[in-house]
Write a structure and sequence with these properties.
The chain is of the alpha+beta class and about 220 residues long. The protein is built from three helices and eight strands. The strands form two sheets. Strands 1-4-5-6-7-8 form a six-stranded antiparallel sheet. A two-stranded antiparallel ribbon has the order 2-3. Strand 4 and strand 5 form a beta hairpin. Helix 1 packs across helix 2.
Length: about 220
């Protein structure tokens, strides 16, 4: 009599059930980490693109953020003009945001000190680049200097979600009230990063944005 070896139907179903439970527990984390890595890369690229563009503007037109004028000014270089000239693929997508709310930020870091964001910095204009990243700023932004910087944000995937500001998920600030420096895990990296722009510089405006930029 020949013996047959194999798995019973119950054993197969139990094995598949275990695999399904493990997959349900791990796949969301893997997806979140993958999105975080993509957001981080896009953020660094967008920040570099903006800084290179303003340096090009200085070389070509001898104008940086400190010499730009508000959108309603009669003459002078406006930020929208600068984006259109130096990032020729940039396009105004403000109307695509409908009633999107600009990320909240009451203070930013400047030379290690907390500085209050002026109430006139409402984000009301958003320009998209060819790679899908976007730069939001105030149409009233003008004469942006280090002592009076202008505030905006980089949205690494435009109008696509989650449209959330990246925040520390461990520690706060440089040293933190809890003694722990700001840390942002891969799963905590979101698509919006606040920035300051002034003179020839565009830099992160929050501890979380700095942690993502300078972290490994």
């Amino acid at each position: 009599m020949t013996k047959r070896f194999g798995f019973t139907l119950a054993e197969v179903l139990i094995t598949l059930g275990i695999i399904g439970v493990v997959a349900a527990m791990t796949i969301p984390t893997l997806i979140s980490n993958t999105n975080g890595a993509q957001f981080k890369t896009a953020y660094k690229k967008a920040l570099s693109t903006l800084n290179q563009a303003v340096l090009m503007n200085v070389a070509m037109d001898d104008t940086d953020f400190s010499g730009m004028v508000a959108a309603d000014a009669d003459a002078g270089t406006k930020i929208a003009d600068f984006l259109g000239a130096r990032l020729q693929t940039a396009s105004d997508i403000t109307d695509q945001y409908d009633n999107e709310t600009a990320p909240a930020l009451t203070t930013y870091k400047l030379d290690g000190a907390d500085v209050t964001v002026p109430q006139t910095t409402a984000i009301d204009t958003v320009y998209a680049f060819a790679d899908g990243t976007a730069f939001g700023f105030s149409a009233a932004a003008a004469s942006c200097t280090k002592t009076a910087p202008c505030y905006g944000y980089i949205d690494v995937n435009g109008t696509a979600g989650p449209n959330q500001q990246t925040e520390c998920d461990a520690g706060t600030g440089t040293t933190g009230d809890d003694g722990v420096a700001c840390e942002v895990s891969a799963s905590a990296v979101k698509d919006i990063f606040p920035v300051l722009f002034y003179g020839q510089t565009v830099e992160p405006a929050s501890d979380a944005a700095k942690a993502v930029l300078f972290g490994k």
